[in-house]
Amino acid sequence: MVITRNLKEEIIKQLKTKGLVRIPASEEDYFSVVYDIPFKVEYHENEIVTIGLASYEHEKITAKLIILLSQIFKGKGVDYDILASNSGVQIPKFEGGYYMPDVLVMRDEPIFKANSNCIITNPYLIVEILSPSTKNFDLSEKLPEYKLLDSLHQVIYINPKKVNVSTYTRTENPNAWINQDFYGLEESIVVEGVNISLSDIYRKIKFEG
User: Fold this and answer.
1) Domains of the chain listed by start with CATH number
2) Residue 53's CB: how many other CB atoms inside 10 A?
3) With a cut of 70, which residues of the chain have pLDDT below it?
4) Euclidean distance between CA atoms 141 and 136, whole angstroms
5) Model pTM?
């Protein structure tokens, strides 16, 4: 176990050589560093999980999604807020889980974790921009926990390295989700009954190789 007072230094040290850092830690340890590190720091099953600064293409896609989602939710007649990754989400489970989605949509008023004004318990829609180092963690470990959020209606995963978007949409049965995968720029995902073209999501994105 890393000594709490050295936790920040240990995280930064490991990030110099690793794309994804996982360090055993208590919830108390997590909150001792999460507000003091200038990039995404998450907590999953008694581990701090973090990556370094996001890539330029990652941030371009994030900004586009905020704009596209703002256009969709504007005028819906319900109060929505669209937030970026500095806002946290708490998973309602015994061992604790705290994540920082790249984009999240709030419907109505936020319900915050006790004694917090930045960790939300009732997101409506979540967007994650994948990276090679976090893909397995995002899909295999975080997604099942996101589905535990009663308020959550849809999760969107976007691959910035190639044209590939996956959506998970809750059905009328709260425990049943529809997964759809998209691979062509001519295709569209559906959010709140409105199409978002993959060509708009990936506009001006440069793929490697």
Assistant:
1) 4-50 (no CATH), 56-201 (3.90.1570.10)
2) 11
3) 1-5, 77, 94-96, 209
4) 7
5) 0.92
pLDDT tens digit string along 124-141? 999 999 988 888 899 999
Which residues have C-beta within 8 Å of that of residue 93, sequence separation ≥ 6?
Answer: 145, 148
